[in-house]
Design goal:
The protein is of the alpha/beta class. The chain contains ten helices and twelve strands. Helix content is about 30%, strand content about 25%. α3 packs across α4 and α4 crosses α5. It starts with a strand and ends in a 5-residue tail after the last strand. The chain binds adenosine-5'-diphosphate (ADP) and magnesium ion. The site of adenosine-5'-diphosphate has 16 residues, from β1, β2 and α1.
Amino acid sequence: MSLLDVKNLKIYYFTLKGVVRAVDDVSFNVREGEVLGIAGESGSGKSTLGYGLMRLVPPPGRIVGGNIVVSGRDIVSMDEGTLRREIRWKVISMIFQGALNALNPVYTIGKQLVEPIIFHEDVSLKEAYERAAEMVKLVGLNEDVLRRYPHELSGGMKQRVMIAMALILRPKIVIADEPTTALDVVIQAQIMNLFKKIKKELNQSIIFITHDLSLIAEIADNVAVMYAGKIVEYGNSDNVFNTPKHPYTQGLLKSIPRLKSKEKLSWIPGTPPDLRNPPVGCRFHPRCPYVMDVCRREEPPIKDVGGNHLVACWLY
Ligand SMILES: Nc1ncnc2c1ncn2[C@@H]1O[C@H](COP(=O)(O)OP(=O)(O)O)[C@@H](O)[C@H]1O
Ligand SMILES: [Mg+2]
């Protein structure tokens, strides 16, 4: 069953220097228990997409078009009160990029975990604390962290608390935006294992956002590759990783170091475009090794190349 249906979503930032088309006509869906990986270089619109799904796009940004249907309800047109009471954090929640220090320094972890439960549900303080204790154990922390303050925790522990916060109301979908990027390699692996456990034990739907395709390969059922505000390739992870179709995806995969591989590492030359004034036609054309005339003129539609594997490229 589809939990989340995103159709033709557009999110623009209206800056003094022009309109940044950060998310430009993006469509995808997420089923129950599915992990969808969203990959792409920095600046491709991944975080903006995440904010959009929470309807928390910071000004001067705004959702300017499309639909976001969560559990059958379109949240683009929903009033803020209903959204806050019934959807945000409760049905869809988010672990924000770089938010390790977003915990309130003056309250204990326990208080910060209990607060949303009390706000949203009719339970006693004691029950709420029991739920918080269960949740911290689930994310691999000792119960006594409930009595501690944020500054007493390591980076890895704080990230586990952030994950517990995102899960505390048992939302149907969790968006994790670069949840391991700020952590060192060993802790990063532990957090990845935690996400795998959450996926398996809770059958949790997760939108896993990262610039690192190798992390997506570890955990995602499906993957959407973003370039310059658009999804350029979308499909089952095995298909996308084994037979990448878009030259951009191919380039990204060649830039991942692999053990025992004799293939030379390479990087896609050039940089992502300025989204205030993206290239006409295919936004990737200035960097594409296979560029043709049509690519400079017309935007490629996204097409199924077989097996629900979608690609937006004139080569197909
Ligand atoms: N508050 C903002 N105001 C104006 N432009 C923004 C703002 N936040 C992000 N952008 C622009 O939107 C585009 C997408 O950014 P972002 O969603 O952060 O990408 P990613 O998460 O993939 O790195 C970038 O061009 C970025 O400069
Ligand atoms: Mg980001």
